[in-house]
Amino acid sequence: MAAGTTLGSAGLLLPALTDVAQAADLDAASIPRFTRAMPLSPVLRPSLQSSGAAFYRMTMRETTAEIVPGLRTRVRTFNGSFPGPVVRAVSGRPVVIVQTNALDVDTAIHLHGGHVPPESDGAPMDLVPARGGSRAYVYPNQQPHANLWFHDHAHHMESENVFRGLTALYLITDDIERGLNLPSGDQDVPIALRDARFDSDGQFVYVMGDFQQRNVILANGSAWPYFEVEARTYRLRLFNTSNQRFFKIGLSDGSEFTQIGSDGGLLAAPFPTTSLPLSPGERADVVVDFSRYPVGTRLVLSNGQDGPDALTAQLLQFRVVAAKGPDTSTVPDVLRTLPALPPATAFRDVALSMDEGPVAPGTEPQGYINGRVYDPDRVDTVIPYGSTEVWTVTNTNRFVPHNLHIHLVQFRVLERNGRPVVSGPESGLKDTVSLFPGETVKLQATFTGYRGRYLYHCHLIDHAAMGMMATMQIV
Question: Is Metal-binding a UniProt keyword of this protein (predicted)?
C-alpha cells in the first residue's frame, strides 16, 4: 500500500510507512496516571574484576513487563530488565561486555557517545547473530565522565529493536565529576524517557515512522509513574530514548531548575532554565531543588513540545516527602574546564533530508544524507586521523525535524542559525544535535583516538532505518 502523510507534533508532517493488521489501539487517555512508582534501572555487577578492567556478561532476550497497569507487554531486553540495566564505569578503566543474543533477530550493540575502537562500535553489519550468537565489546573508557547509553544498530532492525525495549544505560565517572559535591547516592537518579504505542492487549504496536500514534509516555519503562523525592536537591540524568519524539522538559509550576550537563558530561558552568529541549538520543543532567516545596506537594515533569493539552504533555509526577537528613550537596559556579578548540583543518557541508508527502506507489519514504541513501559498502567521507573539522549541517526539509549523531567523537556546537553558541545547553560536549526544518548548525570535532569506519546519521532512529546514515573513514 502506498505510504501517506500524517500530521505530527507541532504541525510536522511525518510519513506513516505501512498499515498493519492488529488489535485496536489502547486508548492512551484511559491509562491511569501516577498510580505506580517509577522503577529504577538495576545496576549491573561485573562477573569479574581485575586491576585493569571490569568484565560483564549480558544476554539479550525477550520477556514481559507491566508497562501499563494491569497488562503484560512483550519486550526485548538486556538481561530481562525493563528498564534496561545501568553499567557504571570509570574513566581510564576498560570495560569488556560479552553480549549474547537469545532473541530471534540479529542485533548490533552501539554504545551511544562512546569513544571506542571500530570493532566495538556496533556498526550496522557487525551483527550478533540471533538465537545464541555472542560478541565481545571492548570499551577502553579513554574519555571523560559522560552519560552514555546502549541501543541496537542492526541495519533495518535498529528502529524496531529500540522501540521494543533494547536499550540500557552506561555512566562513566572521573576525578573531575567525583571532586564536586553534586547530589549523589539515592539523590542521583537516571531517568530514561520515551514514548510508545500499544494495542488493547497491551502489546507494542510498531509501525515505522508513525510517531504521532506513539502517545503513551514511559519513564524508566513505566507509563506515567510517580517518583517520591525527599525535600532536598536531586540530580536527574535525563535520557531521551525515543525513536522520534522531541521533548521540551519543564516543571509543571514553571519554576526554575539548573542544567549542569549534556551528552558529553558537565557543562563549564551551571545553566538556570525553565525549559529544556531534548531530541532523540540526547541527554541532559539537571539539578532540581525540591526543598522549596512543602511536604506533600505533587509536581509534574512536563513536556511543552506538544502543547499543554496533548496526551504527551505530562511525563511523570514527583511526590515530595520529608527529608531523612541534611542536604550538604552544592552546585559550584564552575563545573569543569572544557578543552580548547584547536584551529580547523577542514570544512564540510552535511544536508539531512527525507521524502515528504506522497511517494510513488509501491515505494516507501527514504532518508538521505547529502542526497544519498545509506549503503553499508560505501564510504561517504574520508577524514585524516587527527584532523579538526567544522561541519555545517542543514535540515533541508520543510516539515520534518531531524538531528545528527556522530559516532566516535564529542563535538562542540559553534553556531545555530548563524548565531554563536557561547553558553547554555549546547555549549558543552555533544554527540547529538537537533535540527528543526530549515535550521543549520555549525559544529567542530577532532577525529582522533582510533582509525576505521564509523557512522554519522539522524538519530530519529526510524529515519536512520529509512537510510539517513552515512559512513566516515578515519585514515
Answer: yes
* CA gap 183, 136 in Å, rounded: 34
Average pLDDT over residues 27-56: 95
Going by the DSSP 8-state scheme, the letter that residue 431 receives in this structure is: S
CA 352 – CA 356 distance, rounded (Å): 13
* Cell numbers standing for residue 458: 539522524
383: closest CA among 440, 454, 431?
Answer: 454
Strands of 161-215, DSSP E: 167-173, 188-196
> Which of helix, strand or coil describes residue 211?
helix
Q: How far apart are CA 176 and CA 171, in angstroms?
A: 14
Cα(365)–Cα(373) distance, integer angstroms: 11
Contact predicate 110/127, CB 8 Å: no
In the three-class reduction of DSSP (H, G, I as helix; E, B as strand; rest coil), residue 4 is classed as strand
For residue 172, give Cα distances in angstroms to 88, 279, 412. Answer: 6, 21, 19
User: What is the length of the chain?
Assistant: 475
The per-residue pLDDT for range 80-136, each reduced to its tens digit, is 999 999 999 999 999 999 999 999 999 999 999 999 999 999 999 999 999 999 999
Phi/psi of residue 300, each to 5°? -105, 135
Inter-residue contact 93 to 411 (CB < 8 Å): no
Q: What's the pLDDT at 420?
A: 98
Q: How confident is the model at residue 451 (pLDDT cuts 50, 70, 90)?
A: very high
Using CA atoms, how far apart are residues 280 and 403, in angstroms rounded to an integer? 8
| Torsion angles phi and psi, residue 352, rounded to 5 | -105, 135
DSSP state of 107: B
Q: What's the fold here for domain 185-321?
A: Immunoglobulin-like (2.60.40)
Q: How far is CA 156 from CA 117, 241, 280, 412, in A?
A: 23, 18, 18, 30
pLDDT at 361: 85
- Lowest mean pLDDT segment, chosen from 54-68, 210-224, 353-367: 353-367
What pLDDT sits at residue 2? 30
Say which residue the cell 532473541 belongs to: 103
pLDDT digits (tens, 9 = 90+) for 359-377: 888 888 999 999 999 999 9
Give Cβ neighbours of residue 338 (< 8 Å, ≥ 6 apart): 268, 412, 428, 429
In this predicted structure, what is the pLDDT of residue 21? 52
Give the pairing type, strands 469-474 and 381-383. Answer: parallel
Q: Which residue has the cell 510536522?
A: 12
How many separate helices (H) and strands (E) can be counted in the chain? Answer: 3, 34
